[in-house]
Structures are given as C-alpha cells and as structure tokens.
Write a structure and sequence with these properties.
The model has no long low-confidence stretch (mean pLDDT about 95). Helix content is about 25%, strand content about 35%. It is α+β, with helices and mostly antiparallel strands. The strands form three sheets. Strands 1, 2, 3, 4, 5, 6 and 7 form a seven-stranded antiparallel sheet that branches. Strands 8-13-14-15-18 form a five-stranded mixed beta barrel.
Length: about 450
C-alpha cells in the first residue's frame, strides 16, 4: 500500500513494461500503454440527513499497438500478467484488420518529455466518513441559517478523490504522477408558493487544506437562491451581456474547441484557418501555462508523452497557435503543440474591474448567471441557449430575470468582448473572470 493506492508507481511501471515487452515480442512495430488507478469517497446530506455515502476504486490498462500504419486499441481492468498479454493480443488482432492511416503512429522521439517534474499535484485527503458528514451538514445548515425563506435543499456534498497513472511507449518514454481533487458543494431552494428558486455554489481544490470554510459555501449558495426570488421575464431586445465568471469559462471553452485539431481537420469549426488572424479584440491575451504548481491541468507531458511548454495562444487578439495532438497535427500538416488530451491551464489576462466594476461599465444590460441547454453549433458558430440572471440598470442589479434565451454568433461574440473581469474562480483548466459582451439578442416575451 502507498498513500491509499493498491499499487505503487513502480508497480504501475512494471505493468506498463510487461505490455510493451509483449507487444514487441508479438511483432508490433510500436506500442503505447496507459496504466491508472484511482479511488475516492463522496458523502451527501440533505436536510441534515445522510443521503448517500459512496466509495469508488477503479483501475485500468489501455494498450495501443501499431503494425506499420495500422492501429489497434484494447483495454482491461485486470492487472494480471495473463490479462495484460491478452489485452495486447486483442489490440494486435484489431490492428491487423484496420485500414492503414498515414497519420497514425507515435510522436517524434525528440519531442517526448525527458525529465520528471514535481508540480505539487497530490495532496491526499484521508478524511473519515463522520468528519465528511459533519462538514456537509455545516455547509447545508449555514444555507438554512441565512433566512427562513430557504425552505429546502438539494443537498450538500463533500468529495475527496485521488489517482495516479503511468504512461509509456516503445520509444523509451515512461512517466506518470499522482493527483488529487476534492470539492464541497451546496444547492438549496428558496421561496414559497409558486415563487421558488434554486441556486448552488461549490469550491474545488487539489489540497483540501486550502478550502474556504464550508459554511461560507452554503451561505453563498443560499444568498444566490434568495436573490433570484421575484424573477421576471424580459421583452425581446438586443443589449450588452455579462457572462458571470463560472459561465465565461464555457465561452473560452467554445473557442478552445473551435481551434482544436479534431475540429480543424474534420472542418467542423467556425474558426477554420484562424491562425495568425484577429479573433478577439486587441486587448485579449490567453496564455497556456502547463507547469503551474498545483494547477488543475498541470502536466509535464500530454497524452502522447510529448513535453509541454509555456506559450501564448492569443496575443493582441490574434490566434498564435492551435491545440494539436501528434495525430491531429499530422492530419493538418503541422507539428504537435503538446495538447493531446486537451489544454493545460489557460489563463485569460484579466482587466482592472471586478464584477461590480463590470456592471458599472455596462450600465444597462443583462448579467447571466445560469445557462440551460446545449445550443452551440461549432460549424457555423451560432449560439442560442436558455438563460437566467439579472437585469442591470445604471450599473446596479435592478431585478432577477428567468425564462429567456440569449443568442448570437460565437465569432461576433468573441470579437465583441468589451472587458474581462478579475473575479476569477479557479475550478478547472481555464481561468477567466466575468466577460462583458457588447451586444447579444435576448429573447423573452
């Protein structure tokens, strides 16, 4: 046992090497292996009663083999030597029946990560069930304590998860590390009669010791729900729109999706051939920082084993680089950017204002705090989603609104960014404050 894991890092390395050796012995021209193990605990309470206690423990081994330009993949949750060899044999059988792909294969050996790097990603949390229940209860009770108008709860949850992995290939690369991720969340319902509103809040950290007091999370969830009471509909109009920081992350995520290799080589992106072109206003800068200590998307290498590096994705509003894996890069005739598996800690440069300052800058318009549905067409850029939030007048929240739809085109929305706030909520791989857009269509009555 090591840090709660059933297998040590050295044991995972040995399992990966067994797969690589068997693939070579069976005639594979190349092979890559991923071995992982994870476990965790999640506790939920609702109205102060324990609702769920869940434990999870998972492990898996994935093998990709190449016979020339033919590729096969197989996986297993059995770590026995016989099962590993059978998994390799299955991948080889698949490869023999697949068509050749000129872009298939391992990355260039000189691009592979060569050194270990401690990025402070693992902080195990051995909190007991009773302690987790107590935290969840305090979180939820803090929400009820805000006001007697907080009538009900969808629950408070405390979760602690940790995992580790090894990635290896037949070019000599082998690397891996352990990570942890913990969160506390609360969702409550406020109001009475037909005027009932729900809202939630959560915090996520690598290190549980860095959490804010759970009571603060519950308190804020309650205040958000209460603020939505008395929501109205709006008449259809065009107006400025602010995406609150947690939602602004999704807007940047749409941009990332559009300039990622899979979308580009399949020609399913509204930002085809955007490299070197103006996509944002001149003040927008987006940086990728894979080696941030404790970052949610920090890693010394990508899913191909290619070394990651700092870079500027957008400077002065101009796209400086795509997000490419080895395979998608070859499909586009371009080098990999070390982004197999996704982006690494995207930091959108904030402006001078917090959310309150953005409201004053906007004057009158819509602050969006909730989005519904999946109405995004990445081929055309058309964007239409259900929304709720607040109507703002003279830089101050006037009243809450609901049952509206916001619509526009992502190309216009990105170019129409007026300002970016400094109210960043660090919850994942993308960090951005609230975003003020010049104009969108708001459909209501």
């Amino acid at each position: 046992m090591s840090d709660g894991f059933a297998h040590s890092q050295s044991a995972l390395r040995a399992l990966a090497q067994t797969a690589l050796d068997h693939a070579a012995a069976k005639g594979a021209s190349a092979c890559e292996v991923d071995v992982s193990e994870g476990f965790g605990q999640s506790v939920s309470v609702r109205r102060q009663e324990v609702e769920t206690i869940e434990y999870n423990r998972d492990k898996g081994l994935g093998v990709t083999v190449y016979i020339g330009q033919r590729r096969g993949h197989a996986s297993s949750s059995d770590f026995s030597a016989a099962a590993i060899k059978a998994t390799v044999d299955a991948a080889l059988s698949i490869a023999r029946f697949t068509a050749e792909d000129d872009c298939a294969g391992l990355p260039d050996a000189k691009l592979l990560a060569k050194r270990d790097m401690d990025l402070d990603l693992f902080h195990p949390c051995d909190i007991g069930v009773e302690a987790a229940i107590d935290i969840a209860r305090r979180c939820e009770q803090a929400a009820f304590d805000v006001s007697p108008m907080v009538k009900n709860s969808e629950g408070a949850t405390v979760s602690a998860q940790q995992s580790h992995f090894i990635s290896a290939n037949s070019l000599g690369f082998m690397g891996g590390f352990a990570t942890s991720r913990h969160y506390v969340s609360c969702s409550v319902i406020a109001g009475e009669g037909e005027d009932m509103q729900r809202d939630d809040w959560y915090a996520s950290r690598r290190n549980a010791a860095e959490f804010p007091d759970a009571a603060l999370i519950g308190d804020y969830a309650a205040r958000r729900a209460l603020a939505r009471l008395g929501s109205r509909k709006l008449k259809t109009r065009k107006c400025p729109v602010i995406f609150e920081a947690p939602l602004a992350v999704g807007l940047i995520g749409s941009f990332v999706h559009a300039i990622s290799g899979g979308s580009l080589y399949r020609k399913t992106s509204f930002l085809l051939d955007s490299l070197g072109k103006q996509v944002f206003p001149e003040f927008v800068r987006i940086s990728e920082r894979p080696h941030v200590r404790g970052g949610f998307a920090s890693s010394p290498f990508d899913d191909d084993g290619v070394a990651t590096h700092d870079r500027e994705v957008v400077e002065h509003g101009v796209v400086q680089g795509y997000f490419l894996s080895t395979y998608s890069g070859r499909k586009l005739g371009m080098p990999t950017t070390g982004n197999a598996g996704g982006s690494h800690n995207l930091l959108v440069q904030p402006g001078r204002h917090d959310l309150r300052g953005l409201l004053r800058e906007m004057g009158s318009g819509l602050l969006v705090t909730e989005l519904l549905g999946q109405g995004v067409n990445y081929v055309t850029g058309d964007y239409s989603r259900g929304a709720a939030g607040y109507w703002v007048e003279n830089g101050e929240v006037a009243y809450p609104v609901e049952e509206i739809t916001i619509a526009g085109n992502l190309r216009d929305m990105l170019r129409g960014i007026v300002d970016i706030g400094n109210d960043i909520e660090v919850r994942g791989s993308k960090q951005v404050g609230s975003i003020l857009l010049e104009r969108m269509t708001v459909a209501g009555n």
